[in-house]
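Translate structure to sequence.
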């Protein structure tokens, strides 16, 4: 197996980690993610992972519903991402994968601080690096953190893992039988059509740095390995002249 990319960052949302539960981490789902990450290393790619926290806490929701100060609510969300990162780290280490967790906020008892050069060294040594606590700043999503960390570590691709959605569609495929899937999509079209790829700040950062994004279903068997081998899975968002839609 030959990797199409030298280095990649995988964004795993908190929503994906909760599986079919209403809240928290589903052990079976966590195990599947760990198995996929371990399998991806066999392809020969240097892999970083960034975890979201929406299965435990959502800062925007806390601010809207609980009338909590938005900055405080976002900091609580950063702590949720650290919980997910530590759970994934443990699952990977149980499978014999050497892992390091780096946090954008100080959590010295459980994680290294985010230091770019140290992260690069870990990756060069074949370790999986898990980035937690987003950017370390309120008002920024973990999508933006994923884009930022990808650029910082010189990743060749940003992999957006979705929960049983195999790409980007022109409408919600769960609600519209006529929804069509994009095979490839330009950054500008994704922004102009407000498609659910990632938030606009993250997407703009990827566009400005010419960082390709692949949106795919992490829970399709062997999907991560296939993506890293360069197989046409999911939706590619990149510097393309025109987008391509599949007819249903």
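Result:
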């Amino acid at each position: 197996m030959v990797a199409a990319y030298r280095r990649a960052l995988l964004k795993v949302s908190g929503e994906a980690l909760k599986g079919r539960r209403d809240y928290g981490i589903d052990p079976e789902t966590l195990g599947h993610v760990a198995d996929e990450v371990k399998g991806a290393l066999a392809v020969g790619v240097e892999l970083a992972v960034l975890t979201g926290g929406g299965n435990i806490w959502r800062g925007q929701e806390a601010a809207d519903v609980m009338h909590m100060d938005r900055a405080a609510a976002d900091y609580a969300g950063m702590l949720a991402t650290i919980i997910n990162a530590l759970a994934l780290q443990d699952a990977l280490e149980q499978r014999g994968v050497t892992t390091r967790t780096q946090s954008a906020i100080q959590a010295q008892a459980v994680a290294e601080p985010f230091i770019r050069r140290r992260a690069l060294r870990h990756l060069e040594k074949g370790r999986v690096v898990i980035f937690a606590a987003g950017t370390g700043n309120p008002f920024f999503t973990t999508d933006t953190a994923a884009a930022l960390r990808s650029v910082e570590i010189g990743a060749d691709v940003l992999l957006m893992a979705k929960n049983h959605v195999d790409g980007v569609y022109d409408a919600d495929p769960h609600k519209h039988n006529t929804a069509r899937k994009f095979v490839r999509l330009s950054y500008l079209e994704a922004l102009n059509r407000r498609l659910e790829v990632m938030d606009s700040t993250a997407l703009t950062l990827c566009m400005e740095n010419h960082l390709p994004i692949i949106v795919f279903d992490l829970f399709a068997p062997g999907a991560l390995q296939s993506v890293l081998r360069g197989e046409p899975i999911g939706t590619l968002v990149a510097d393309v002249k025109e987008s391509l839609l599949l007819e249903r």
